[in-house]
Design goal:
Elements (H helix, E strand, L loop, with lengths): L1 E5 L8 E4 L3 E5 L6 E2 L13 E6 L2 E6 L6 E3 L2 E2 L2 E3 L5 E4 L6 E6 L7 H13 L5 H20 L8 H16 L4 H56 L3 H28 L1 H6 L5 H13 L8 H16 L1 H24 L9 H6 L19 H6 L14 H19 L4 H8 L3 H12 L12 H6 L5 H18 L9
Protein backbone atom coordinates (compact mmCIF):
# COMPACT_ATOMS: atom_id res chain seq x y z
CA UNK A 1 0.00 0.00 0.00
CA UNK A 2 1.18 3.52 -0.76
CA UNK A 3 0.12 6.65 1.15
CA UNK A 4 0.40 10.20 -0.10
CA UNK A 5 0.32 12.98 2.48
CA UNK A 6 -0.58 16.32 0.87
CA UNK A 7 1.80 18.98 2.18
CA UNK A 8 0.89 22.06 0.13
CA UNK A 9 -1.92 23.24 -2.13
CA UNK A 10 -5.68 23.19 -1.69
CA UNK A 11 -5.64 19.68 -0.15
CA UNK A 12 -2.82 20.34 2.32
CA UNK A 13 -3.19 18.35 5.53
CA UNK A 14 -5.10 15.47 3.93
CA UNK A 15 -3.87 11.96 3.20
CA UNK A 16 -4.78 9.44 0.50
CA UNK A 17 -4.04 5.71 0.67
CA UNK A 18 -4.12 3.34 -2.29
CA UNK A 19 -3.78 -0.43 -2.68
CA UNK A 20 -3.93 -0.63 -6.48
CA UNK A 21 -1.66 -1.86 -9.24
CA UNK A 22 -1.91 1.46 -11.08
CA UNK A 23 -3.34 4.81 -10.05
CA UNK A 24 -3.58 8.06 -11.99
CA UNK A 25 -2.97 11.55 -10.64
CA UNK A 26 -4.43 14.68 -12.24
CA UNK A 27 -7.57 16.78 -12.61
CA UNK A 28 -9.58 14.43 -14.86
CA UNK A 29 -12.74 12.90 -13.37
CA UNK A 30 -11.42 9.33 -13.52
CA UNK A 31 -8.14 10.05 -11.72
CA UNK A 32 -7.61 8.17 -8.47
CA UNK A 33 -5.96 11.16 -6.82
CA UNK A 34 -7.92 14.06 -8.25
CA UNK A 35 -7.09 17.76 -8.01
CA UNK A 36 -9.32 20.73 -8.80
CA UNK A 37 -8.06 22.26 -12.05
CA UNK A 38 -9.27 25.75 -11.06
CA UNK A 39 -7.52 25.65 -7.70
CA UNK A 40 -4.45 23.73 -8.91
CA UNK A 41 -3.72 25.16 -12.41
CA UNK A 42 -0.25 23.56 -12.40
CA UNK A 43 -1.78 20.07 -12.50
CA UNK A 44 -2.66 18.54 -15.88
CA UNK A 45 -5.73 16.29 -16.51
CA UNK A 46 -3.50 13.19 -16.55
CA UNK A 47 -0.35 14.48 -14.93
CA UNK A 48 1.31 11.35 -13.54
CA UNK A 49 0.77 7.70 -12.70
CA UNK A 50 2.02 5.52 -9.87
CA UNK A 51 2.44 1.90 -10.96
CA UNK A 52 3.54 -1.25 -9.14
CA UNK A 53 6.12 -3.00 -11.29
CA UNK A 54 9.28 -5.01 -10.68
CA UNK A 55 8.34 -5.29 -6.98
CA UNK A 56 8.34 -1.51 -6.39
CA UNK A 57 6.19 1.59 -6.86
CA UNK A 58 7.24 3.76 -9.80
CA UNK A 59 6.24 7.37 -10.45
CA UNK A 60 5.66 7.92 -14.18
CA UNK A 61 5.24 11.28 -15.89
CA UNK A 62 2.19 11.17 -18.21
CA UNK A 63 2.18 14.73 -19.55
CA UNK A 64 5.63 15.74 -20.77
CA UNK A 65 4.74 19.41 -20.39
CA UNK A 66 3.36 18.84 -16.91
CA UNK A 67 6.62 18.35 -14.98
CA UNK A 68 6.99 15.87 -12.14
CA UNK A 69 9.59 16.43 -9.42
CA UNK A 70 10.93 14.01 -6.80
CA UNK A 71 13.01 15.55 -4.03
CA UNK A 72 13.44 18.66 -6.20
CA UNK A 73 14.60 16.86 -9.37
CA UNK A 74 12.53 16.49 -12.56
CA UNK A 75 11.86 12.84 -13.37
CA UNK A 76 10.08 10.77 -16.02
CA UNK A 77 10.28 7.35 -14.30
CA UNK A 78 11.35 7.12 -10.68
CA UNK A 79 11.30 4.29 -8.12
CA UNK A 80 9.52 5.64 -5.05
CA UNK A 81 10.63 5.13 -1.45
CA UNK A 82 9.26 6.19 1.90
CA UNK A 83 10.15 9.81 2.61
CA UNK A 84 10.25 10.94 -1.03
CA UNK A 85 8.73 14.38 -1.68
CA UNK A 86 6.74 14.79 -4.90
CA UNK A 87 5.69 18.00 -6.62
CA UNK A 88 3.35 18.31 -9.59
CA UNK A 89 4.09 21.21 -11.92
CA UNK A 90 6.49 24.09 -11.36
CA UNK A 91 7.00 26.18 -8.25
CA UNK A 92 3.73 26.45 -6.38
CA UNK A 93 2.45 23.07 -7.56
CA UNK A 94 0.98 20.73 -4.92
CA UNK A 95 3.53 18.75 -2.94
CA UNK A 96 3.13 15.45 -1.15
CA UNK A 97 5.17 12.99 0.89
CA UNK A 98 5.35 9.26 0.12
CA UNK A 99 4.91 6.50 2.66
CA UNK A 100 5.05 2.84 1.58
CA UNK A 101 3.73 0.12 3.87
CA UNK A 102 6.52 -2.31 4.61
CA UNK A 103 6.18 -6.01 3.89
CA UNK A 104 5.37 -7.54 7.31
CA UNK A 105 7.75 -10.41 6.59
CA UNK A 106 10.70 -8.05 6.15
CA UNK A 107 13.07 -7.38 9.08
CA UNK A 108 15.89 -4.98 8.06
CA UNK A 109 18.12 -5.99 11.00
CA UNK A 110 17.70 -9.68 10.23
CA UNK A 111 18.36 -9.05 6.53
CA UNK A 112 21.55 -7.08 7.30
CA UNK A 113 22.80 -9.75 9.72
CA UNK A 114 22.19 -12.44 7.10
CA UNK A 115 24.27 -10.51 4.56
CA UNK A 116 27.16 -10.10 7.00
CA UNK A 117 26.99 -13.75 8.12
CA UNK A 118 27.10 -14.96 4.52
CA UNK A 119 30.20 -12.83 3.97
CA UNK A 120 31.84 -13.83 7.28
CA UNK A 121 32.07 -17.42 6.01
CA UNK A 122 34.67 -16.22 3.50
CA UNK A 123 36.87 -13.92 5.61
CA UNK A 124 37.59 -12.76 9.15
CA UNK A 125 39.29 -9.59 7.95
CA UNK A 126 37.84 -6.97 10.32
CA UNK A 127 38.34 -4.03 7.96
CA UNK A 128 36.54 -5.90 5.17
CA UNK A 129 33.72 -6.84 7.54
CA UNK A 130 33.26 -3.18 8.49
CA UNK A 131 32.78 -2.34 4.81
CA UNK A 132 30.28 -5.17 4.46
CA UNK A 133 28.32 -4.04 7.51
CA UNK A 134 28.05 -0.47 6.18
CA UNK A 135 26.95 -1.74 2.75
CA UNK A 136 24.40 -4.11 4.33
CA UNK A 137 22.95 -1.29 6.44
CA UNK A 138 22.53 0.92 3.38
CA UNK A 139 20.96 -1.84 1.30
CA UNK A 140 18.45 -2.88 3.98
CA UNK A 141 17.58 0.72 4.82
CA UNK A 142 16.65 1.38 1.19
CA UNK A 143 14.77 -1.93 0.99
CA UNK A 144 12.70 -0.88 3.99
CA UNK A 145 11.88 2.45 2.35
CA UNK A 146 10.73 0.57 -0.76
CA UNK A 147 8.38 -1.57 1.34
CA UNK A 148 10.64 -4.52 2.10
CA UNK A 149 11.52 -5.35 -1.51
CA UNK A 150 14.59 -4.75 -3.64
CA UNK A 151 15.40 -1.04 -3.79
CA UNK A 152 17.17 -1.44 -7.16
CA UNK A 153 20.28 0.22 -5.64
CA UNK A 154 22.37 -2.84 -4.81
CA UNK A 155 24.95 -2.18 -7.54
CA UNK A 156 25.23 1.46 -6.47
CA UNK A 157 26.14 0.38 -2.95
CA UNK A 158 28.55 -2.23 -4.32
CA UNK A 159 30.37 0.51 -6.24
CA UNK A 160 30.71 2.49 -3.02
CA UNK A 161 31.92 -0.63 -1.22
CA UNK A 162 34.47 -1.23 -3.97
CA UNK A 163 35.92 2.27 -3.52
CA UNK A 164 35.96 1.89 0.26
CA UNK A 165 37.68 -1.48 -0.06
CA UNK A 166 40.22 0.15 -2.34
CA UNK A 167 41.00 2.78 0.30
CA UNK A 168 41.35 0.07 2.93
CA UNK A 169 43.65 -2.03 0.78
CA UNK A 170 45.58 0.67 -1.09
CA UNK A 171 48.73 0.20 1.02
CA UNK A 172 48.65 -3.57 0.65
CA UNK A 173 50.12 -5.66 -2.11
CA UNK A 174 48.43 -6.24 -5.46
CA UNK A 175 47.55 -9.74 -4.23
CA UNK A 176 45.70 -8.28 -1.21
CA UNK A 177 43.94 -5.77 -3.48
CA UNK A 178 42.73 -8.58 -5.70
CA UNK A 179 41.45 -10.40 -2.64
CA UNK A 180 39.62 -7.24 -1.55
CA UNK A 181 37.96 -7.01 -4.95
CA UNK A 182 36.90 -10.64 -4.68
CA UNK A 183 35.41 -9.90 -1.27
CA UNK A 184 33.31 -7.10 -2.74
CA UNK A 185 31.98 -9.57 -5.32
CA UNK A 186 31.10 -11.90 -2.42
CA UNK A 187 29.26 -9.03 -0.72
CA UNK A 188 27.13 -8.54 -3.84
CA UNK A 189 26.46 -12.27 -4.06
CA UNK A 190 25.47 -12.41 -0.40
CA UNK A 191 23.06 -9.49 -0.76
CA UNK A 192 21.48 -10.90 -3.90
CA UNK A 193 21.22 -14.31 -2.24
CA UNK A 194 19.40 -12.93 0.81
CA UNK A 195 16.98 -11.07 -1.44
CA UNK A 196 16.27 -14.34 -3.27
CA UNK A 197 15.64 -16.04 0.09
CA UNK A 198 13.19 -13.27 1.05
CA UNK A 199 11.32 -13.69 -2.24
CA UNK A 200 11.10 -17.48 -1.81
CA UNK A 201 9.81 -17.09 1.74
CA UNK A 202 7.27 -14.48 0.66
CA UNK A 203 6.03 -16.67 -2.20
CA UNK A 204 5.49 -19.53 0.24
CA UNK A 205 3.54 -17.23 2.54
CA UNK A 206 1.42 -15.98 -0.36
CA UNK A 207 0.66 -19.56 -1.40
CA UNK A 208 -0.54 -20.31 2.14
CA UNK A 209 -2.81 -17.26 2.08
CA UNK A 210 -4.17 -18.19 -1.36
CA UNK A 211 -5.11 -21.60 0.02
CA UNK A 212 -6.78 -19.93 3.01
CA UNK A 213 -8.83 -17.66 0.75
CA UNK A 214 -9.92 -20.64 -1.35
CA UNK A 215 -11.15 -22.40 1.80
CA UNK A 216 -13.09 -19.32 2.90
CA UNK A 217 -14.63 -19.02 -0.57
CA UNK A 218 -15.74 -22.65 -0.51
CA UNK A 219 -17.38 -22.13 2.89
CA UNK A 220 -19.09 -18.95 1.66
CA UNK A 221 -20.47 -20.72 -1.41
CA UNK A 222 -21.75 -23.68 0.62
CA UNK A 223 -23.42 -21.37 3.14
CA UNK A 224 -25.12 -19.32 0.43
CA UNK A 225 -26.50 -22.47 -1.19
CA UNK A 226 -27.89 -23.47 2.20
CA UNK A 227 -29.46 -20.01 2.61
CA UNK A 228 -31.23 -20.31 -0.74
CA UNK A 229 -33.19 -23.30 0.57
CA UNK A 230 -33.84 -21.81 4.01
CA UNK A 231 -37.19 -20.15 4.73
CA UNK A 232 -37.08 -19.66 8.50
CA UNK A 233 -36.29 -15.96 9.24
CA UNK A 234 -34.40 -16.74 12.45
CA UNK A 235 -32.11 -19.30 10.80
CA UNK A 236 -31.62 -16.99 7.80
CA UNK A 237 -30.55 -14.15 10.09
CA UNK A 238 -28.09 -16.45 11.88
CA UNK A 239 -26.66 -17.63 8.53
CA UNK A 240 -26.34 -13.99 7.42
CA UNK A 241 -24.24 -13.20 10.49
CA UNK A 242 -22.06 -16.24 9.78
CA UNK A 243 -21.71 -15.16 6.15
CA UNK A 244 -20.67 -11.66 7.21
CA UNK A 245 -17.89 -13.10 9.37
CA UNK A 246 -16.65 -15.43 6.62
CA UNK A 247 -16.61 -12.63 4.05
CA UNK A 248 -14.72 -10.40 6.47
CA UNK A 249 -12.04 -13.05 6.97
CA UNK A 250 -11.77 -13.73 3.23
CA UNK A 251 -11.41 -10.01 2.48
CA UNK A 252 -8.68 -9.66 5.10
CA UNK A 253 -6.72 -12.49 3.51
CA UNK A 254 -7.21 -11.03 0.02
CA UNK A 255 -6.06 -7.58 1.18
CA UNK A 256 -2.99 -9.18 2.77
CA UNK A 257 -2.17 -10.99 -0.48
CA UNK A 258 -2.65 -7.78 -2.50
CA UNK A 259 -0.34 -5.84 -0.17
CA UNK A 260 2.41 -8.32 -0.98
CA UNK A 261 1.72 -9.15 -4.64
CA UNK A 262 -1.09 -7.69 -6.77
CA UNK A 263 -0.66 -10.37 -9.42
CA UNK A 264 -1.09 -13.09 -6.79
CA UNK A 265 -4.28 -11.40 -5.57
CA UNK A 266 -5.65 -11.34 -9.11
CA UNK A 267 -4.75 -15.02 -9.54
CA UNK A 268 -7.25 -16.07 -6.86
CA UNK A 269 -10.11 -14.12 -8.43
CA UNK A 270 -12.77 -15.96 -10.40
CA UNK A 271 -11.85 -16.94 -13.96
CA UNK A 272 -15.51 -17.26 -14.99
CA UNK A 273 -16.16 -14.61 -17.71
CA UNK A 274 -19.74 -13.95 -16.59
CA UNK A 275 -18.66 -13.55 -12.98
CA UNK A 276 -15.96 -11.06 -13.96
CA UNK A 277 -18.35 -9.09 -16.18
CA UNK A 278 -21.02 -9.04 -13.51
CA UNK A 279 -18.60 -7.83 -10.85
CA UNK A 280 -17.40 -5.01 -13.10
CA UNK A 281 -21.00 -3.96 -13.76
CA UNK A 282 -21.77 -3.98 -10.03
CA UNK A 283 -18.75 -1.74 -9.47
CA UNK A 284 -20.25 0.70 -11.98
CA UNK A 285 -23.46 0.66 -9.92
CA UNK A 286 -21.56 1.17 -6.69
CA UNK A 287 -23.09 -2.11 -5.51
CA UNK A 288 -20.11 -4.45 -5.52
CA UNK A 289 -20.30 -7.38 -3.13
CA UNK A 290 -17.69 -9.99 -2.30
CA UNK A 291 -20.21 -12.83 -2.27
CA UNK A 292 -22.72 -12.66 -5.13
CA UNK A 293 -25.55 -15.08 -4.22
CA UNK A 294 -25.31 -18.10 -6.57
CA UNK A 295 -29.03 -17.93 -7.35
CA UNK A 296 -28.66 -14.29 -8.43
CA UNK A 297 -25.83 -15.14 -10.81
CA UNK A 298 -27.84 -18.08 -12.15
CA UNK A 299 -30.84 -15.83 -12.86
CA UNK A 300 -28.62 -13.35 -14.72
CA UNK A 301 -27.21 -16.24 -16.77
CA UNK A 302 -30.75 -17.50 -17.42
CA UNK A 303 -31.94 -14.16 -18.82
CA UNK A 304 -28.80 -13.82 -20.97
CA UNK A 305 -29.41 -17.29 -22.40
CA UNK A 306 -33.04 -16.36 -23.04
CA UNK A 307 -32.00 -13.29 -25.02
CA UNK A 308 -29.38 -15.23 -26.95
CA UNK A 309 -31.95 -17.88 -27.85
CA UNK A 310 -34.00 -15.13 -29.50
CA UNK A 311 -30.94 -13.49 -31.07
CA UNK A 312 -32.61 -11.88 -34.14
CA UNK A 313 -35.12 -10.11 -31.88
CA UNK A 314 -32.40 -9.21 -29.37
CA UNK A 315 -30.32 -7.67 -32.16
CA UNK A 316 -33.28 -5.48 -33.17
CA UNK A 317 -33.66 -4.29 -29.59
CA UNK A 318 -29.92 -3.62 -29.36
CA UNK A 319 -30.01 -1.46 -32.52
CA UNK A 320 -32.94 0.45 -31.03
CA UNK A 321 -30.94 0.94 -27.85
CA UNK A 322 -27.97 2.29 -29.83
CA UNK A 323 -30.30 4.73 -31.62
CA UNK A 324 -31.74 6.24 -28.44
CA UNK A 325 -28.74 5.91 -26.13
CA UNK A 326 -27.26 9.40 -26.75
CA UNK A 327 -30.51 10.98 -25.52
CA UNK A 328 -30.71 8.60 -22.56
CA UNK A 329 -27.07 9.08 -21.59
CA UNK A 330 -27.40 12.87 -21.68
CA UNK A 331 -30.47 12.91 -19.44
CA UNK A 332 -29.00 10.46 -16.93
CA UNK A 333 -25.74 12.40 -16.83
CA UNK A 334 -27.70 15.57 -16.10
CA UNK A 335 -29.13 13.82 -13.02
CA UNK A 336 -25.70 12.34 -12.14
CA UNK A 337 -27.12 8.83 -12.45
CA UNK A 338 -25.06 5.84 -13.66
CA UNK A 339 -25.87 5.19 -17.32
CA UNK A 340 -26.21 1.50 -16.55
CA UNK A 341 -29.44 2.22 -14.67
CA UNK A 342 -31.01 3.07 -18.03
CA UNK A 343 -31.19 -0.63 -18.94
CA UNK A 344 -34.44 -0.58 -17.03
CA UNK A 345 -35.84 0.55 -20.40
CA UNK A 346 -34.78 -2.72 -22.04
CA UNK A 347 -36.71 -4.70 -19.43
CA UNK A 348 -39.69 -2.34 -19.52
CA UNK A 349 -40.23 -1.89 -23.26
CA UNK A 350 -37.26 -3.19 -25.29
CA UNK A 351 -36.45 0.52 -25.84
CA UNK A 352 -39.68 0.97 -27.80
CA UNK A 353 -41.08 4.52 -27.36
CA UNK A 354 -44.48 3.43 -28.72
CA UNK A 355 -44.92 0.42 -26.43
CA UNK A 356 -48.25 0.02 -24.60
CA UNK A 357 -48.79 -2.61 -21.89
CA UNK A 358 -51.94 -4.46 -20.85
CA UNK A 359 -51.96 -2.24 -17.76
CA UNK A 360 -52.08 0.81 -20.09
CA UNK A 361 -48.51 1.87 -19.32
CA UNK A 362 -47.02 3.77 -22.28
CA UNK A 363 -43.67 4.60 -23.75
CA UNK A 364 -40.09 3.43 -23.48
CA UNK A 365 -40.22 3.76 -19.68
CA UNK A 366 -43.73 2.27 -19.30
CA UNK A 367 -45.50 4.88 -17.21
CA UNK A 368 -49.16 4.98 -16.32
CA UNK A 369 -50.91 8.28 -16.96
CA UNK A 370 -51.00 9.04 -13.23
CA UNK A 371 -47.26 8.42 -12.75
CA UNK A 372 -46.37 10.39 -15.89
CA UNK A 373 -48.38 13.44 -14.83
CA UNK A 374 -46.91 13.32 -11.32
CA UNK A 375 -43.49 13.61 -12.98
CA UNK A 376 -44.50 16.63 -15.07
CA UNK A 377 -45.53 15.01 -18.36
CA UNK A 378 -48.64 16.05 -20.23
CA UNK A 379 -51.15 13.24 -20.79
CA UNK A 380 -54.59 14.16 -22.11
CA UNK A 381 -56.91 13.61 -25.06
CA UNK A 382 -54.70 15.55 -27.47
CA UNK A 383 -51.12 15.08 -26.21
CA UNK A 384 -49.34 12.11 -24.64
CA UNK A 385 -45.75 13.02 -23.84
CA UNK A 386 -45.03 9.47 -22.72
CA UNK A 387 -44.16 8.74 -26.36
CA UNK A 388 -41.66 11.62 -26.53
CA UNK A 389 -38.32 9.90 -25.91
CA UNK A 390 -36.51 12.90 -24.46
CA UNK A 391 -39.34 14.10 -22.24
CA UNK A 392 -40.19 10.67 -20.88
CA UNK A 393 -36.51 9.90 -20.31
CA UNK A 394 -36.23 13.13 -18.31
CA UNK A 395 -39.21 11.97 -16.23
CA UNK A 396 -37.75 8.47 -15.74
CA UNK A 397 -34.41 9.91 -14.61
CA UNK A 398 -36.24 12.18 -12.17
CA UNK A 399 -38.22 9.21 -10.83
CA UNK A 400 -35.05 7.14 -10.28
CA UNK A 401 -33.33 10.13 -8.64
CA UNK A 402 -36.30 10.54 -6.28
CA UNK A 403 -36.08 6.86 -5.35
CA UNK A 404 -32.38 7.31 -4.58
CA UNK A 405 -33.29 10.31 -2.47
CA UNK A 406 -35.62 8.08 -0.48
CA UNK A 407 -33.50 4.90 -0.24
CA UNK A 408 -30.03 6.46 -0.13
CA UNK A 409 -27.61 7.98 -2.62
CA UNK A 410 -25.79 4.67 -3.17
CA UNK A 411 -28.93 2.47 -3.33
CA UNK A 412 -28.86 2.10 -7.12
CA UNK A 413 -29.91 -1.54 -7.02
CA UNK A 414 -32.85 -0.78 -4.75
CA UNK A 415 -33.92 2.11 -6.98
CA UNK A 416 -33.94 -0.16 -10.02
CA UNK A 417 -35.70 -2.87 -8.05
CA UNK A 418 -38.42 -0.36 -7.18
CA UNK A 419 -39.04 0.91 -10.70
CA UNK A 420 -41.50 -1.78 -11.76
CA UNK A 421 -44.22 -2.66 -9.22
CA UNK A 422 -41.65 -3.08 -6.47
CA UNK A 423 -41.57 0.38 -4.93
CA UNK A 424 -43.96 -0.34 -2.08
CA UNK A 425 -42.45 -3.79 -1.59
CA UNK A 426 -38.99 -2.28 -1.08
CA UNK A 427 -40.44 0.25 1.35
CA UNK A 428 -42.05 -2.53 3.37
CA UNK A 429 -38.76 -4.46 3.46
CA UNK A 430 -36.84 -1.41 4.68
CA UNK A 431 -39.44 -0.69 7.36
CA UNK A 432 -39.27 -4.28 8.52
CA UNK A 433 -35.48 -4.10 8.80
CA UNK A 434 -35.71 -0.75 10.60
CA UNK A 435 -37.47 -2.50 13.50
CA UNK A 436 -34.32 -4.51 14.20
CA UNK A 437 -31.46 -3.14 16.35
CA UNK A 438 -29.27 -1.08 14.03
CA UNK A 439 -31.75 -1.57 11.20
CA UNK A 440 -31.20 1.98 10.02
CA UNK A 441 -27.54 1.28 9.19
CA UNK A 442 -26.32 1.13 5.61
CA UNK A 443 -25.34 -2.54 5.71
CA UNK A 444 -28.86 -3.50 6.82
CA UNK A 445 -30.50 -1.43 4.06
CA UNK A 446 -28.20 -2.89 1.39
CA UNK A 447 -29.81 -4.65 -1.58
CA UNK A 448 -27.75 -7.81 -1.04
CA UNK A 449 -28.73 -8.06 2.63
CA UNK A 450 -32.41 -7.78 1.75
CA UNK A 451 -31.99 -10.22 -1.15
CA UNK A 452 -30.30 -12.94 0.91
CA UNK A 453 -32.87 -12.66 3.71
CA UNK A 454 -35.68 -12.96 1.13
CA UNK A 455 -37.23 -9.68 2.28
CA UNK A 456 -37.78 -8.36 -1.27
CA UNK A 457 -40.91 -9.30 -3.24
CA UNK A 458 -40.46 -12.15 -5.75
CA UNK A 459 -41.04 -9.87 -8.76
CA UNK A 460 -38.36 -7.52 -7.44
CA UNK A 461 -35.86 -10.36 -6.90
CA UNK A 462 -36.36 -11.36 -10.54
CA UNK A 463 -36.50 -7.86 -12.03
CA UNK A 464 -32.96 -6.81 -11.10
CA UNK A 465 -31.22 -9.86 -12.69
CA UNK A 466 -33.19 -9.14 -15.89
CA UNK A 467 -31.96 -5.54 -15.95
CA UNK A 468 -28.36 -6.60 -15.31
CA UNK A 469 -28.55 -9.26 -18.01
CA UNK A 470 -29.57 -6.59 -20.53
CA UNK A 471 -26.79 -4.30 -19.29
CA UNK A 472 -24.19 -7.06 -19.66
CA UNK A 473 -25.02 -8.08 -23.22
CA UNK A 474 -25.02 -4.41 -24.29
CA UNK A 475 -21.73 -3.74 -22.49
CA UNK A 476 -20.13 -6.72 -24.27
CA UNK A 477 -22.12 -6.78 -27.56
CA UNK A 478 -19.50 -8.64 -29.60
CA UNK A 479 -19.13 -11.39 -27.00
CA UNK A 480 -22.89 -11.98 -27.06
CA UNK A 481 -23.34 -11.80 -30.82
CA UNK A 482 -25.28 -8.52 -30.98
CA UNK A 483 -23.05 -6.98 -33.66
CA UNK A 484 -23.17 -9.86 -36.16
Amino acid sequence: MIRLKLLTGSQAGTEAAFDKQTLRVGTAEDCDLRFDGDREPEVRPYHAAIAWKDHAYHLLELDRSGQVFVNGEAVADHTLRTGDHLRLGGEGGPEMEVSISINPDYDPAEDAARIVDAFRDHTQEERALEVVERAAERVTEERAKAGGVSSRQTMEFMTVALHEMGDVMKKETRRRWGRGLALVVLVAAAIIGTQRAIIIRQRARIAEMQDAKTRFDEQIHALQLKMEDETDPVRLAAAERQLTNLVSEAQKVLADIASRDQAAAQAVESTDPLDRQLRQLLRDFGSETYAIPPIFRDRVAYHIAEMQAALPTTQVVYRRKVRYWPVIAAEFKARELPEAMAYVAWTESSFDPMAVSRADAHGMWQMTAETAMSLGLRVDDTVDERHDVRKQTQAAALHLAMLLGEFGEDAFMLAMASYNQGENGVRRALRQVAREPGGFKKEKRDFWHLYRLKLLPPETREYVPRVLAAALICTYPEAYGLTQ
